[in-house]
Each structure stands twice: as C-alpha cells, then as structure tokens.
C-alpha cells in the first residue's frame, strides 16, 4: 500500500479556465448520512484525498466541515466544492453564506449551480449573484452542474464569467460525449459524477478483462479511464479500503487502445434525473 503523501501526489492537478488548479480525483459525499460524513471525510483525508465534493442538498456540509477542522490540514491544501440548492436560486447569497458557515471555511474553492431547473427561470439570476461572490474573493471558481447544451448557451449569452466546470453524470455506459465536447470547446472542464455508474458499470466484461490485464480492480480501471479522457472525477465510498483503491487509480495509465475500448461501452443508460425536466426543490 502506498503512503498518504505518495497517494495524494499521484493525483494530477488540472488548471481551470481562470488559472485555479483542482485535484483531478476527489471524494464525493452524496448519500452519506450527515452523522457518518465526518467519519468518512476524516478517513478520506487520512487516505490522501485533498478534494471533497458536497452540496447543500446533501445535508452533510457540517460533517465535511467538522472533518476539515479536525484534520489539521492547511485550508490552502484542500479543494472544497459545494452546490447551490435548486430552491435557493432566488437567494443565492444567503444560501452561499449558509454553506460557508456549515463548512466552517472562509472561502469555497468551487461553487456550482446544482441543476438548471429551466422551469424556474432563475439560473441566470443565480449566476449573476455567484459572479459577485466570485468578484469579492469568497469563491475561487464558479461553475454549473447538470447543464445541457441549451442551458449552457443561455448562460453563456447572458454572463460575464464563463463557468469553470460543468459537473455531469458520466461513466462508461453513459458518457454524454457531445455535451462534454461542447463544454470543453468553451473552456469549461468536465467533472464526472456517478463516475462508477454507482457501481453498475463495474460488472462489465470488458472492464473485468482490462482489470485483470492491468493487475487492477474494475473501479480503478474505470477511474483511470476518466482521468485518461480528461475528466475530473469524484467517486464516493464509505469503505476505507475502497477509498485507498480509488485514489490509487491515479497511478494507473491505460493505453490509448484500452481507453477506446472503454469509450465503446456507451449504451445511453442514464442513472440520475434528466436535467431537461428535473425540477426538485431539494429543500
Ligand atoms: P459513484 O459512481 O461514485 O458510486 C458510488 C457507489 O459505488 C457506492 O455504492 C460505493 O459503495 C460503490 N463503490 C465505490 N468505490 C467502489 C469500489 N472501489 N469498488 C466497488 N464499489 C465501489 O456514485 P455517486 O452517485 O455517489 O457519485 C459520486 C459523487 O458525485 C457523489 O458523491 C457526489 O459528490 C457527486 N454527484 C453529483 C450529482 C449532481 O447532481 N451534481 C449527482 C450524483 C452524484 P460504498 O460507499 O458502499 O463503498
């Protein structure tokens, strides 16, 4: 087993469109109950993760904050992402302050609009408020999540700051290649959520075969594929052994031919909600 410093150092830093760098492999905390989040994030930080992805809607920001405070790590050495809840797009500043307080930090590294909720018609207003918070230095980079092409076009036509990131569902069986390409063509980095397909993509025969040939696990092969295609990736696990396993994927480099074999596994199977119509308030 590699030590913590080696594991953390193997994670590449990507440079976002405003010059801010982000560890390409982070740790997601969706569906971790609030009271278990402190324990999971403490373990993740001890394992070597330096990038944590949470959201106001996950109701576990305070658990993330407690783990950060107890870690003894310098704030500058951590990259913290949180997200604006759908029902708070009309009160972005207050929502941001609540997140900042729950996390117990002076600044957020990356703040995302969680979903566009086009039926609400509020995301450009929310973006303007985020641009102000960014200009004030309270956020190092601002971005979006679940934005499809029409939402990106609308935002880009009405905004000053180009999003640094579009966080979208992406895994071998559902890659959203066109959306990823469009995002990148505007300088927007692609961040893959549910990168393991919530575990569902790990049983695929091609993934198993490649895992055997690289002496790796299926999860490591899938994560190495994301890293090799340029995605930022934020796998979630509450299992310490899997935290180590997933982080160590940064030490695996797949050949171009093997990257392509995994890219050929697309089958259009979305797991999460469709952003074109998703309108949950998350309150
Ligand atoms: P993932 O693709 O990360 O899969 C998580 C599941 O895979 C869990 O059941 C976990 O089990 C299992 N798992 C993790 N590592 C391994 C491994 N090495 N071997 C076998 N099984 C493994 O799904 P998520 O949906 O959680 O996505 C990751 C993150 O993306 C979220 O935590 C969140 O931060 C973000 N996200 C963002 C969304 C958005 O709308 N912006 C929506 C959904 C997710 P266990 O924990 O039991 O070990």
Description:
By secondary structure, the chain is of the alpha/beta class. The chain has one domain (3-200, 231-238): NADP-dependent oxidoreductase domain (TIM Barrel). Helices cover 40% and strands 15% of the residues. The protein contains eleven helices and ten strands. Strands 3-4-5-6-7-8-9-10 form an eight-stranded parallel sheet. The chain has a two-stranded antiparallel sheet with strand order 1-2. Helix 9 crosses helix 11. The longest helix has 14 residues, at 34-47. The N and C termini lie far apart (42 Å). The structure holds NADPH dihydro-nicotinamide-adenine-dinucleotide phosphate. NADPH dihydro-nicotinamide-adenine-dinucleotide phosphate binds at residues 28-31, 53, 114, 145-146, 167, 193-199, 202, 217, 219, 234-239, 242, 245-246, 272.
Q: Return the structural class.
A: alpha/beta
Share in helix:
25-40%
Q: Enumerate the distinct ligands.
A: NADPH dihydro-nicotinamide-adenine-dinucleotide phosphate
Number of strands: 10
Head-to-tail CA distance between termini: 42 Å
What overall form do the CA principal axes indicate? Answer: globular
What is the CATH class?
Answer: Alpha Beta
CATH-assigned homologous superfamily: NADP-dependent oxidoreductase domain
Question: What's the mean pLDDT score?
Answer: 97
Strand content: 5-15%
> What string gives the helices and strands in order?
HEEEHEHEHEHEHEHEHHEHH
Please mark out the parts with pLDDT under 50 across 5 or more consecutive residues, or reply none: none
Q: What is the CATH architecture assignment?
A: Alpha-Beta Barrel
Number of helices: 11
For the largest beta sheet, what order do the strands appear in spatially? 3-4-5-6-7-8-9-10
Task: From the alpha carbons, calculate the radius of gyration and give it in angstroms.
Answer: 18 Å
């Amino acid at each position: 087993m590699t030590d913590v410093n080696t594991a953390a150092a193997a994670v590449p830093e990507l440079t976002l469109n405003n010059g801010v760098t982000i560890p390409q492999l982070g740790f997601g905390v969706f569906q971790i109950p609030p009271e278990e989040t402190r324990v999971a994030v403490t373990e993740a930080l001890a394992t070597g993760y330096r990038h944590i992805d949470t959201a106001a809607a996950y109701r576990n920001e305070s658990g993330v904050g407690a783990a950060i405070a107890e870690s003894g790590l310098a704030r500058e050495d951590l990259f913290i992402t949180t997200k604006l809840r759908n029902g708070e797009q009309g009160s972005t500043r207050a929502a941001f302050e609540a997140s900042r307080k729950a996390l117990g930090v002076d600044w957020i590294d990356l703040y995302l609009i969680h979903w566009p909720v086009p039926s609400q018609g509020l995301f450009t207003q929310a973006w303007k408020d985020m641009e102000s918070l960014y200009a004030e230095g309270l956020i190092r980079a601002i971005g979006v999540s679940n934005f499809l092409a029409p939402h990106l076009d609308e935002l880009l036509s009405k905004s000053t700051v180009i999003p640094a990131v579009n966080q979208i569902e992406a895994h071998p069986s559902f890659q959203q290649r066109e959306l990823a390409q469009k995002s990148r063509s505007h300088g927007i980095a692609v961040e893959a959520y549910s990168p393991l397909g919530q575990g569902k993509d790990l049983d695929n025969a091609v993934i198993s075969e490649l895992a055997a040939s690289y002496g790796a696990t299926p999860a490591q092969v899938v994560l190495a594929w994301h890293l090799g295609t340029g995605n930022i990736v934020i796998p979630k696990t509450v299992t310490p052994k899997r935290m180590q396993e997933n982080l160590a994927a940064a030490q695996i480099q797949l050949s171009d031919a093997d990257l392509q074999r995994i890219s050929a596994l697309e089958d259009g199977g979305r797991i999460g909600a469709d952003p074109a119509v998703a309108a949950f308030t998350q309150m």
